[in-house]
Amino acid sequence: MTDPKLVNAASINAKLVSDIDPLETQDWIESIASVISNEGGERAHFLLEKMIEKSNHEGVNIPYTAATAYINTIPVDQEPAYPGNSEMEYKIRSYMRWNAMITIVRANIKDSSLGGHIASYTSLATMWEVGFNHFWHGADADGHGGDSIFFQGHSSPGVYSRAFVEGRISEEQLIDFRREVPNTHADDDKNTVHRGVPSYPHPWLMKDFWQFPTVSMGLGPMQAIYQARFLKYLHSRGLADTAQRKVWCFCGDGEMDEPESLGAIGMAGRENLDNLIFVVNCNLQRLDGPVRGNGKIIQELESDFRGSNWNVIKLIWGDKWDSLLAKDKTGALRKRMMECVDGDYQTYKARDGAYVRENFFNTPELKKMVENWSDKQIWHLNRGGHDENKIYAAYDAAIKTIGQPTVILAKTIKGYGMGDEGEAQNTSHQQKKISSEAIRRFRDRFDIPVKDEDLEKMPFIRPAEDSPEMKYLRARREALGGYLPKRRIKADNPLIIPELSAFKAQLDATAAGREVSTTMGFVRMLNILIKDKNIGKNIVPIVVDESRTFGMEGLFRQIGIWSQAGQNYVPQDADQLMFYKETKDGQVLQEGINEAGAMSSWIAAATSYSVSNVPMIPFFICYSMFQLQRCLDLVWAAGDQRSRGFLMGGTAGRTTLNGEGLQHEDGHSQLIASLIPNCISYDPTFSYELAVIMQDGLRRMMTDQEDVFYYITVMNENYAHPAIPKDAEADILKGMYAFAKAPKTTAPRVQLLGSGTIFREVIEAATLLKNDWGVDADIWGCPSFNLLARDIHECERINMLNPLAQTKHSHVANCLNSQNIPVIAATDYIRSFAEQIRSAIKGTYRVLGTDGFGRSDTRDQLRYFFEVDRYFITIAALKALADDGTIKASVVADALKKYEINPSKPNPMHV
Questions:
Q1: Is the entire prediction scored with pTM above 0.90?
Q2: Cα–Cα distance, 793 to 838 (Å, whole number)
Q3: Angle between helices 436-445 and 86-110 (to 10 degrees)
Q4: Which phi and psi (to 5°) does residue 491 adopt?
Q5: Residues 6 or more apart in contact with residue 481 via CB below 8 angstroms
Q6: Which of 148, 162, 630, 649 stands 20 to 30 A from 622 (CA)?
Q7: Which residues have a Cβ under 8 Å from the Cβ of 245 and sit 6 or more positions away?
Q8: How far apart, in whole angstroms, are the C-alpha atoms of residue 80 and residue 391?
Q9: How far are the Cα atoms of 271, 583, 756 from residue 589, in angstroms, in the given order?
Q10: 758 vs 91: CA distance, rounded Å
Q11: C-beta neighbour count of 49 within 10 angstroms
């Protein structure tokens, strides 16, 4: 028999629809109202929680909801007085709106292909201006350090508009919006110099202005979360005082569809990031149509964030609604607000007051509430995201919240002020041109001081320096510590890095009988750096639950895993030497199984020199397949942000992580690295290569402060390491060095190239060629085919543009072309990797690589399968000699038989 106490959710919901005892219900409502009135909200909250607790204990299944009523979180009587001059700020804000719109319209009159987005900024102009005038601290604020603002990228014209008024960018830069390429034609008549501002926030393109690239949607929210966390990390470790600094992230409600936008909010809540504030611009529209036409995006996001331990502030209704809500004694208005879906709300703002009267105020009770209102008054019922007083209240509450991150869900209108040509229209996002009449209406609506006769010129507005508006604007920014956005280009104190001799153990050969991997070599170098008196504290090891995989568990006890909470439990391995140690001043960032989060932490550390004037040296190591491939969008953003640090691709190469199979075996990460212009990538074979590369990278990034970052692949395969060849350092850094050269003889000769673990197969192939076939081979280590290719492209470009000048030769050409003999390259990556240098090689060039899907087996079997082992390298060399006529083709056939290679074996690319 069913226990009568177990009331299911469906029956509860059915009863909620119709009240079976209204008098009893009213008694309960009056009781709780009395408690609120006499004892306060906290007491009422306590009693309600006790009632829920008792109901649960008695078996009443109360459906959980994290959403609250569809009204503002902050009641009118709790809104602080607005501290600014509203009339002055309205004027300034109107100038910003005008300049932003004119920037896009004028650019597209010249060339309509340039594009731009008018509607996004119009929806959040008020929110930004309240921030600029009252909340956002610049880096020069006394004892503060400055706030970090992740601006909603599609609204960048609004930031440019303010910077223009402030005198930080010129009118010419606005006129040439989205025209950044300087015209350097030799013909003076064509020498028009464009120096316009870029489409979106890009530190690479405006290195002293933008801090954070945000228009690959979803990356801004994720990076903001980890930026806030890294500020806590710096503070905990005593490296910077970040206690007063906030991270603000503006994002669109449509952007929240991106998995990255919400993917890390749980971490932010768990880590109590009270220095983090999200402002979601809920204008209810995506690019094509409504975000949630049949639902309510604000309610959905409220549940998501509240369930992740965020403080949620709903900013839905403007002050014009206050009087209506005050007299809504029966709750009819609140009920109507809740039952309307977002598709309706969008349509209301695309129509007029009469339509709203008829379709929103659609019951006798609701119609009576506005019976004395004109259609114009109804039309002016405003949304919270356009009300400076309510915005200020939300911001003020957010910055005062302790122990939780805050999200402000601000309801706005996309295309606000654009009228019939863009306001709340499905086409708003694509709007880049508007008619002369719409411009006139825009001017009139926002009281823009432009005369009728000047409208066609569409002038930009900058008040006179001695005007009240300019004095007010400058006074506000001076009080808050300077202008924003503003990016620091270099840290004040470059780091002093150790000399190459500090890594003597890696430069020397391994002891007889001792075998190590390049991963082990890296970990030993990392330990040397951590112990260095100058930079040890600046090292940031970042792992994704794989420390033991890479032999880094010794760091747990040595420097600890950073945790704001410390360690409030006894770890299972507490009796072990290398136990799992979490500590408030720990140095390791343990991100869990979360490569995107680790990449975001790496970016925060790699840009700390700019954001916090504290240069840090992050090392993020994980399986290479799950780093660049999985996180490429973030890695590209890291390049844009001028990040400095090391990405270490562990267990790299198609055949080194032999047991894990297709999804884990990486044969292309080096090619991915080549796509990013300021990524310096290497695939070293031996510890001495790694030492030379890492030490030079430290010099370039931390001492010389070059805006580059490194991607270095390391392997888990153990073998003996030789000592560094004499005078090899410079050529190692160029990407190619002489490992061993055969004596000059009359025998057939080839040149063998390789990188990573397959370079060892190349070395063995040279022995086979000599012993089995009498062929001499010069051996070249090529730790960076990517850098070699860049050098080749640079030389080719210079030669093309300077046909009468002396030919410039690449490093590859200088190394190889003194002999017109075959060159064979083999790597653990797909052929395209080593193919990059083909154009510089004079002789026959053969490339072996691991094209195809990976699979599990022994390393020997995999290298045979992918045709990159010593035997296939030998066959390739002999075939190249035969094709050149140096030896007979029968020699190749003999070699195939000798090495038991089946000529009919399937192509690994297709199986």
A1: yes
A2: 11
A3: 170
A4: -70, 150
A5: 137, 138, 139, 140, 141, 142, 144, 146
A6: 148
A7: 137, 144, 145, 146, 147, 148, 231, 275
A8: 11
A9: 13, 11, 28
A10: 67
A11: 10
pLDDT at 64 over 80: no
Pairing of strands 737-740, 776-781: antiparallel
Q: Are 828 and 670 in contact (CB under 8 A)?
A: no
What digits encode the pLDDT tens for the residues 579-615?
A: 999 999 999 999 999 999 999 999 999 999 999 999 9
In contact, 339 and 299? CB cutoff 8 Å: no
Contact 672, 640 (CB under 8 A): no
Q: Residues near 81 by Cβ (< 8 Å), separated by ≥ 6? A: none
Q: Which tokens hold the place of 254? A: 């449509």
b/e 434-459 (16+ beta carbons within 10 angstroms → b): beeebbebbbeebebebeeeeeeebb
Reported confidence tier of residue 192, pLDDT bands at 50, 70, 90: low
Helix intervals (H) in 804-869: 811-816, 831-835, 859-865
Burial class (CB in 10 A: 0-12, 13-18, 19+), 113: exposed
Cβ 225 vs Cβ 268: under 8 Å: yes
CB within 8 Å of 433: residues ≥ 6 apart: 105, 108, 109, 112
Answer whether 564's CB lies under 8 Å from 272's CB.
Answer: yes
Q: Are 461 and 583 in contact (CB under 8 A)?
A: no
Q: Kindly write down the DSSP assignment for every residue of 577-619, as one continuous string.
A: TT---EETT--BEE--S-HHHHHHHHHHHHTHHHHTS---EEE
Between the alpha carbon of residue 399 and those of residues 42, 284, 302, 396, the distances in Å are 21, 26, 19, 6
Largest CA distance in the chain: 110
Measure the CA–CA gap between 753 and 784, rounded to whole angstroms.
11
CA distance 530 to 534: 9
Mark 253-284 as b/e (b = at least 16 C-beta within 10 Å): bbbbebebbbbbbbbbbebbbbbbbbbbbbbb
Structure tokens at 516: 């190590």
**pLDDT tens-digit series, residues 199-233:** 999 999 999 999 999 999 999 999 999 999 999 99
CA dist., res. 630 & res. 443, Å (int): 48
| Cβ(657)–Cβ(473) below 8 Å | no
Instruction: Give dist(CA 229, CA 542) in Å, integer.
Output: 14
> What's the burial of 151, exposed, middle or buried (CB within 10 Å: 0-12/13-18/19+)?
buried
Pairing of strands 776-781, 749-754: parallel
Using CA atoms, how far residue 31 sits from 25, 36, 44, 479, 769, in Å, is: 10, 9, 10, 48, 95
Contact 246, 399 (CB under 8 A): yes
Looking from the CA of 593 toward its CB, the CA atoms found within 13 Å total 0
Q: Which residues contact 175 (CB under 8 A, 6 or more apart)?
A: 106, 107, 196
The type of residue at 497 is I
Tokens of 110: 């010249």
Question: Would you mind telling me the total number of residues written for the chain in this entry?
Answer: 911
SS3 state of residue 758: helix
Of the candidates 840, 839, 815, 834, the residue with the CA atom closest to the CA atom of residue 876: 834
Angle at 519 between CA 515 and CA 525, to 5 degrees: 100
DSSP states along 465-499: TTSHHHHHHHHHHHHTTS-SS----S-SS---PPP
Q: What number of CA atoms fall less than 13 Å from residue 15's CA on the CB side?
A: 11
For 460, the enclosing helix (H) or strand (E) is none
In tens, the pLDDT along 327-375 reads 999 999 999 999 999 999 999 998 999 999 999 999 999 999 999 999 9
In contact, 350 and 279? CB cutoff 8 Å: no
